[in-house]
Amino acid sequence: MPELAPRLPMLVTQTRCEFVRLWRQPAFSLPSIALPVMFFTLFGLPRLGERIAGADAGPYLLATFGAVSMTSVMLFSFGVGVAAERGAKVDILMRAAPLPPVVHLVARVLTALAFGVIILSILFAYGGVAGVRQSPVDWVVMAICLLLGALPFLAAGYAIGNAVSAGAAAPIVNLIWAPLSFGSGLFVPLPFLPSVIQQIAPYLPSYRYAQLVLSSVGEAAEPVGECIAWLLAYGVLFTAGALYTTRTDRRRKFV
Fold it and tell me: Can you give the pTM of this predicted structure?
């Protein structure tokens, strides 16, 4: 049996290809970058200097709009992207290629994180120019919470992408993403939402993600360790769902 190329060079090359592929899709890259900046321009700039839930409005809104953007990137890059590849039969081509599936998967994860870093860098730079002030440590902590806390949504997106058709993926992801974002207090602080939503919110993965992110500005209503435990549990659950939908799709096509 012929030996495969070293895994690391394969991973670097595949990650670069995945990044370029997404970057060349304006329908994905432009909204991903523009939306958080637009949200902060419309709702953040007019409130600079105010207080929200006891915190400075600038960092608070950067954290919440950053979380909205990260969940969108993770769900769409995997959910819609994987479904589109299945619709175009790219998954069949990749199965015939000598690329190990784990390399392809890790490359997609790294690409999503790379897009997240770019989006947050632009958003943070825009916020800094607009007048948001934090210590360097606070900026770094916020970025880490936003990036790592969003990882369970990658698994959720992968599960969706392998379960639905290319045409249905975007509407389904939107139907999931929008209620999760609104219901967890990312657009409107939770105390201002209806009581029934306030009761449901603690069980939503986006709520635990929001609380983790808000801990970086000192306004989390839940303990950080508890939020991390919930997100890990959701990550395991969504990964199990992704494995199940992937195996089901492959059995349907290749067995």
Answer: 0.88
Instruction: Report the distance separating Cα 175 and Cα 47, nearest Å.
Output: 29
Cα-flanking dihedrals φ and ψ of residue 223, to 5°?
-60, 140
Closest CA to 151 of 123, 114, 112, 119: 112
> Which residue carries 């909204």 as its tokens?
31
Task: Report the alpha-carbon distance of residue 126 to residue 45 in Å, rounded.
Answer: 10
- Give the total residue count for the chain: 255
Is the pLDDT assigned to residue 69 strictly greater than 70?
A: yes
- Spatial contact of 170 and 80, defined as CB atoms under 8 Å apart: yes
Residue type, 88: A
Tokens representing 24 are 């060349």
Residue 129, phi-psi category: left (phi > 0), alpha (psi -120 to 50), beta (remainder): alpha
Beta strand segments in the chain, E:
51-52, 55-56
Helix (H/G/I), strand (E/B), else coil: 128: helix
Q: What is the DSSP letter of 45?
A: G
